[in-house]
Amino acid sequence: MYRLNKLVHVRAVRNILPILLLIAILTVPAGASEAKNWTVMVYMDADNNLEDFAIQNFLQMSSVGSDNNVSIVVQMDRIGYNTSYGDWTDAKRFYVEKNMTPTPENATMDLGEVNMGDPQTLADFVAWAVKNYPAEHYTLILWDHGGGWRNEVKEPIKGVCWDDTDNDHLTLPELEKALADAEAQTGVKLDVVGFDACLMGMIEVFHQIKDHASIAIASEEVERAPGWPYEAILSDLASNSAMTPEELAVDVVDEYYKYYNDWFSEFTMTAVNLTKVGNLTKSIDKFANDLTASIPGNESVIAGARLSSEEFCWGSDYFGSIDLYSFAELIHSNLNLDSAKAVMEAVNNAIVAEKHGSGHPNAT
Q: Domain map of the chain by residue range?
């Protein structure tokens, strides 16, 4: 009886193997393959009033498309202000191929409605992309509105990636949690984290994510709605997929500069080496203590340096967002604090690439 049962079991496995193989083949995501040079992950939160520009940016990406060396994967959440390309209003994942349009039938996965402001949603996307599209290097781009960091608790609240359907966004601690969770699941530390969002070029943002990526790219100033020039950036990467993370970061900054410099003066873009941020924050702590001790008798000098520093964002909502180097330089020239010069040196050591328009001449 034992031998008979065992024989039946073996035959049953043989009969079901083709079915299991077929299921496995059907569930492999489009474009999944052996490791490539780069996987570019775009967390495209268009569940808000930026939906039109999300579609434009998706089409820019698909004008280049994935190839044998580079995978471009997008998680896109829409809201319905724009009714083109199937008028869908939930979230889908795409393996972006050349000339692809963001229609439901082109999606690799249909997620239904998801909260893009939930850190688990971001962690799941990164883990899925790393697992299914392995590469030597990984870039994650957070695409949406951004608010950076500030200590006031008022609207608009600090953070990034606003999901209007769920009335939520990623706070900076949630962003750090998502990156940490994804790294724990995959064992992969991201090479580059890019913020195609406003006001994310702050030391507080970089400090929050420094343990989970090597380089961050962000703007101190608000970004214009068209965002990054994806066609130019991805074309450069496709033509030279052997780029190092530093080379890609420099390329993003350069292409951003070339795209905006002819028609918009108040732009900034910086790439930062996150391994240098710990030393920078220590230098800021020393500077802050020395500055506090210098206040008696120097109130007007310090206030004047603050008012003269390069400042960002329209209006006063983000009053307090100034260029760190600009402020430290003015303090050093007026009070000759060694710690101010140390901050300037630490900023220079952390910068991989930096460009700004004529409207922000002292941006770093």
A: 36-274, 278-349
